[in-house]
Amino acid sequence: MNMRRTSVAGSFYPNSCEEIKRYINHFDSIIRDIDVHNNMDVKAMISPHAGYVYSGFTANFAFNFLSKELKKNIKRVIVIGPSHKVYLKGASVALYDEYETPCGNLEIDLNFSTTLMNSYDFLIFDDKAHHEHSTETQMPFIKHYFKDVQVVEIVYGDVDFNQILTLIDELLEDDDNFIVISTDLSHFYTLEEARKKDNICLNAIENFDITKFDAGGEACGMIGVKAILSSCLKKNFRSKIVDYRTSFDASGDSNSVVGYVSALIGK
Fold it and tell me: Model's pTM, two decimal places?
């Protein structure tokens, strides 16, 4: 069996299914009495990708909400995130049979992934690119909330956001697809400066206005965020910020802060 092996289990998130479930159950207990219902037909989400101790609550909040808000069963979840370790020209799509998680494997839609690669010149398969935490950290949540879906992993590097935009335009045309855009926000500023920069990004997401990022917003997955916002703007979708926080909330360190956001996008 050709498998996308875990590469950050035991560091970014637990390598034990029992421990992952303990995290998720704890997060769910906090949000149990929070009403965020807004009757949205959700097609995509933005989710953070730091260690679960820092951004797991923010990511889980959106996945939990999504599992309750979906109007129909989804067949395929496409996770799109930036490459942090490997220089990559274009983007790489994972051509494996399965995706390993501590709570059991997810089936990769290999036929769909191969078709995408053959359809877009900027898409390749580079095995080294798929030792990537921005996409992998999403998979235990997907396995927990959507046990039987197929997944597609796309890791991008040096690529024009318009290329990712064109891809997302096509992906959103298929109701079987759901898209997860992975990003963290500002990195390693004071808490005050981080909140200023992050508010620029939150405003851009809420208003589907990528020009607002130019005022000083930062996100390691900016290409993916700009692409999903630009695509969904054309469809008159709307967005909902589900949760925003920083690493300060977990660490208490206000001198070197990373920002995290989760948002749902749909019609």
Answer: 0.96
